[in-house]
Each structure stands twice: as C-alpha cells, then as structure tokens.
Amino acid sequence: MQITFRCSKCEARLEIDADSAGTEVACPTCGSNQVVPRKGLEPGTTIGGFKLVKLIGRGGMGEVYLARQLSLDRMVALKLLSRSGSLSGDAAERFVEEIRLTARLEHPYLVTAFEAGEDAGILYLAMAYIRGATLHDQVRRHGPLKEAETLVLGRKVASALAHAWRELKLLHRDIKPSNILLDSNGEPRLADLGLAKCLDKNDGRTVVGALLGTPNYMSPEQAEGREDIDIRADIYSLGATLYTAVTGQIPYEAASVVETLRRQATEPLPDPRTFSPELSEEFVGLIGAMLSREASDRPKSWDALVAILDRLLARHPGAAGILPIVETPSVSPVSTATPAPPPRDVAAIIAGISIAAALGVGAGLVWLRLGSGTESARPPGPETSSASSNLPGPLLAVAPATSAPPDAPAPGPGEWRDDDILPRGGRPLDPALRDRIGAAIADARDYARTHPEDIDGQIARFRKVAAIAPSGPLMHRIQEMIRTAPDMKRRAQGIAEAALTAGAEEALRTGRFAEAIGKLEQYPGPFAAETKALRESLVGRLKTADEEARQKAAQERIAALSDRVATGVVKGNYLSAFSDLDRAAADAEYASLLDSIHATRGVVTELAAVQTNLLKSFLAQKGLEIPIDFKSGKAETLQIGSVRGATVIGRRLLKEGFIERPFTLADLSLKEKERRLALAGGTPSAVVMGLLALEAGEAPLAANRFLGSGTALGAALARAVSARP
After folding, report:
1. Which residues of 51-73 are buried (b: 16+ CB within 10 A; e: fewer)?
2. What would the pLDDT profile of 649-702 be if each residue is shown by its tens digit?
3. Measuring CA to CA, which residue among 390, 385, 395 is closest to residue 411?
C-alpha cells in the first residue's frame, strides 16, 4: 500500500510504501528529512495496485471503495475487510472464502470478481463496478415494482443462484434488496457473497446460533443457526426480497431483532395485496410458498422455482391454480399504517429478552406447536374467541371448541369439554381422571408462564399430562410437541443469542459500553448457561472497544490541549501556555492525563528557557575571545565583554584597545544557537531544535523537527506552523 504526501520544505509530491509510516525519509528533490505520516484509508491510498477514489458503501464485512486498477486503467469496486477487528477469526475466514468462491463463479447476473489479495495486512477483493443503484434504493426512491417486473427480477436472480448451487453447492446466506445491484439497463447483479458457505467442503465452521445474515430476510432455520440448511433458506430470503420489491414493505418488520424473529415465528405473513391490491392470486401464492416457515413447504430446488417463475411469466396474469406443486400458507391482511419504530435502547434489547421469551421466544414456541391450522401460528391474546378462551392459560391454542352445538352452554371459567381431549365419539372422562388431567395441565401452564425459558422443564410437565391423558387430540399434540422440542429449544436459544448480539452491536455503534457490559455480565434471562461463552466473547469485544474509545478520547483531549499550548508557544506567550496547562491539570476530565500534562509542561519549560540558556552560554565565556557565526553568513571572532538584558556586548580586539560589537540572539545563525545549547546542556530536544528553526525563519524544517519529536505537543506545533501564512 502506498501513502502519498508532500514535502514540508519544497512541497514536492512523495509516494512512500505504507510500511514506512512513522519513519524519516529523505526528500529526493530537496534532500530534507521528512516523517512519513500515518494515514488511514482515504482517497489516494493505493492497495494492491488499486488506487482508492471514493467510499461507496459499508457492510457487515467491511467497506467498498470505487477504485482505479492502475495496471489496466479501469474502475472497479474494491471491497476491503473491516479493520475494526483483527484479520484472524471468523470475519477474515469468511472474507477469504468469499474471495475464493466468488472468483470461481461467472454468470451474467452475478457480480464478476477480478482479483483478490492482501496488502499491508488488508484483505481486498476487486469486483466489477456496477453503475446504477441497489434494488433497495430503487424501491425506496421510485416505489414498488410491478408484478411482471418482480417476476423477471426473481427469475434472473434465481438463475444466478441455481448456477452457484450447480457449480459449487454454494449458498449465498444474505440475499436482500441491498445486495441486488441494478445496472444502467436495469439488469440485476447479485453481490456480496461474504456469508457464503461451500457445502461440498463440509468444513463446519459456521457457529451454531451465530446470526450470519440479515434478520428481516433470514429464514427461520438460518435464524436458529442450524448446520443443515440448504438452498431452501436462500429461497426464503429471495421470497422476502421479492415481497419487498413488489410491496415496498419488509415482511415481518419490527424495531428489534427479537421482535422480528418473534413475529416471523408466531404471526401469519401479511398479505402483499394489502399494499399492492393488483397482485394476482398466483403470485401471492408463490411468495407465500417461498416464505413458508417450514423448509419442506417451500419449492424444493432452484430448478423447481425457476419453472414456476417461467410459468407465471408465460401466463401472466394467468388463472388461479397454476402452482399445484407448492403449498400456500395462510396470509392475513394488516393495516397499511407503518408506525415509526421506537428509539432503540441497549439495556432494553438485552434485559428485555426474558419478556420476549414470555411473548414467544420460550413458552410461546411450545404453544405454537400445540395449536392447529392458522390459529396455531398465533399466540393467545384478547382476539381469541370466547369459547376457546375458557381454557386455562396457554392452552388457548389447543382447544378446537367447535364440536359442541351452537346452542350448547359455554363452560365455566377453568373448564373445557371432554371432546377437546377425547377422540371423536370417545367415552366421557371419569371425573377423578378429569381433575387429575386438569391439575397436570394447570401445573404445566403455570410453570411455562413463570419459567418461559425452561423448555425442558415445560416438556417434563407435559409428559406428566401425556402419561394420564387418553389418546385423542390433546395427546397427539403433546406428543408432537415433545418430538419437536429440541428444534424449538434450539430456535429459542438462537433468538436469545441474536438478541444478545444485537444489544452488543448497538452498544458498539452508540458507545454505551459500560451499560451493555453490565447487562451481559449479570444477564439473568433465558439460556444464561448456554449463552455464557457468547456473552463472554461479546463482553471482551465491548471492553476492547471501550478501552479504544477511552484512549481515543484521551488522545483527542490531549491534542486539543496541545493545540492551545502550541499557539502560545509559537507566539512566544509562554504565560498563556502555562495557564492552559494549569487549568487542564485542575480539570477532572484530564485526571487520567496528568502524566502527559506534566510531560508537556516540562517541554514548555525547556522551550521557555532557550533564550536564558543562550545568554548564559555567553556569560560563561566572559573575557574569552571566541568565533561566532551570524545569520548574515559572516563569522566574527569576538571577546565576550558582558550581557546587558537581551544584548551581548562583544569586543573586536585591536592592537591597542578594542571596538565594541553588540549583538542580540536574533543576530545569531541557527547553527550557532544549536552549538551553544549543545555545549550548555547536551543535545537539545527535537522540539527545541524545531523552535530554533522557526525563529530562524525556516518553517518547513521547524515543522519536520516538531513532528520528529513524536510528542503530542510536537505534532500540535507542526500544525500551528503549517497554519501560519
């Protein structure tokens, strides 16, 4: 990587390797020593033969720059791994995988990869630069697409993903509107394979429960962190993307990750016709099938999906019933009003997990499995019918409450009909058995309400119900629930981990480190034991970020103080400089910087004593005849007579007598001053040498010497000198 800067003396343009940052190099034009500045990534920086032009995007894996490939003189999109973390670990591993896999894929609807590598510790990937906008921006600026446009878009993206699967068994894992680029002709290009995983290698590096992807467009099984996901997870994400493209809405949009995943797990898919009434029944059916909660209910392969899209395109707007190979989940209309999301609160995100569990993360997922039909996907609430609401607690979702005749009296509170439990036509329950079943159900219900995160405990109590209940609807549902309990627990844990991670990421973004660290270390919510390793990892990241933020704030405070002190020094107003340092030393905000303040005071004291020390050097030579270099370029041999104020009285000796030759320190050459200070007390510091150069009118040399001191005050003095007219 190359760093470009200008010589502080002759303004010549220098281009130096980044590895030399912080060292001194000789300017090839004027020969002066120059300190190579330490720079971050910015326009003009060259990485791996690519010169950065401007930043065009940021994502979870890093930054994307518009860059010029110097060897071929062409513009590319250059993706760089984020430098906020180290180059080791999952982030670097996924980036390297993206480089390897992307470079092997060529398809008209995939972004083409040109080159990849590493330069100065920075991983990069050069890709085709697509002039246009993302699908997200297109919909946001111009509104939803038409149905036919969405079908064409979906067909092209699906063909690209089918190609990736056929060639490499590759999953994208992060399909969303912002990863679909539309070129100047409106052709889509699928980008960002940073979360891809080549299943052929089966390396098992994805961490269970890790949230790799974007929650709004993530399939339920991917949210669980399951290892066995397949192309149907990408089909779900593409379905969610097409839903957004044609409606302008996110399928299960919510203010937090937890709420998004809870809605996805418990609520019906909002009918896209609520937002776009002109959509055909067939299109709505396809979107519903792609967004089925169960992967088995989605199209089975990319070829199957492409075939459906082709049929819809050929027969569009088409008649109903042309999608017999997929099953359409129920959808429910929702209000078109989109409330503004409430402000995000780090503490609420983390501490609120137990609340979220009570609403659907823990016990809610158990009750979800106990229901039947559409109502099974909805948590109990005030909208439940009066007949079914007579059942105790969460078993609201169990009762069909449809077998009794319309004029049958409603059972009293806490009661239910025998046919809610017995098979159709079964014998009435024995009253004693009925009471035992009721007590077992009440115990299971109460435990679930008070321990929403303890799915194992809930299952144990329902086993007790199953042990005494006769074979019938209730027994069958409990058995199904017990069978699927491991999956429910894993999903619940995945959601809890996602919420913890979201809270930590929010804290990293907002700088509320201490609050998030406290919540994570004292976390009492669901899966506390299971999430211990994750929470310790998140706390480690937060503590590192907190320390970095503290150091940055300290550096900014000391830099601001140094700028004020430097202004006084450059003007020769040392009283002002000392006053600024004294005020800072008494300020509580600078309590951690007292060592730096004392060190700076020492340097200012040394600077303030320069004139005095120079005059003392002449007093020490009183009566001696010595050579003196003047800034006029002449050297004179004089006898030192006396020092009067700031004037030295020299004598030019004659054969008989002498002639007085008074002079001031300002008359001395830079070389003479440096020599005298060295004789007086050893080699002067770089800051003192810089001040002498400044007094001699050599501003570029002064700035270079100030920078070479490696101190905050030196850097501030260099800035002050550079700012002078």
Report:
1. bbbeeeeeeebbbbbbbbbeeee
2. 999 999 889 999 999 999 999 999 999 998 877 778 899 999 999 999 999 999
3. 390
Query: What is 132-332's CATH superfamily?
Result: Transferase(Phosphotransferase) domain 1 (1.10.510.10)
Q: Which two tokens stand for residue 454?
A: 């303890």
Which amino acid, 664?
T
Domain locations in the chain as residue ranges: 2-128, 132-332, 346-402+413-518, 607-723
471 DSSP assignment = S
Q: What is the dihedral of CA 358, 466, 221, 256, to 10 degrees?
A: -10
Assigned CATH topology for domain 2-128: Phosphorylase Kinase; domain 1 (3.30.200)
Q: Looking up tokens 């098992």, which residue turns up?
A: 204
pLDDT at 58: 64
What's the CA gap between 29 and 154, in Å, rounded? 59
Residue-wise pLDDT tens digits, 542-586? 999 999 988 888 889 999 999 999 999 999 999 999 999 999 999
The catalytic residue positions are 174
User: Closest by alpha carbon to 191, among 277, 86, 113, 87?
Assistant: 113
- Give the pLDDT mean for 121-137: 87
Cα 46 to Cα 15, 222, 316, 433: the distances in Å are 10, 38, 51, 80
pLDDT at 470: 80
Element counts in the chain: helices (H) and strands (E): 23, 21
Q: Which residue reads 């570029």 in tokens?
A: 700
Neighbouring-strand partners of residue 627: 637
Which CATH number does the domain 607-723 belong to among 3.30.450.20, 3.40.50.410, 2.60.120.10, 2.30.30.100? 2.30.30.100
Asked if 48 and 119 count as a contact pair (C-beta separation under 8 A), the reply is yes
Give the pair of three-digit tokens for residue 568: 């006084």
Q: Same CATH topology for 132-332 and 607-723?
A: no
User: Which pair of tokens denotes residue 101?
Assistant: 């896999």
pLDDT of residue 376: 32
Q: How far is CA 277 from CA 270, 273, 280, 329, in A?
A: 13, 4, 8, 18
Which contiguous run of DSSP H or E holds residue 65?
strand 62-69
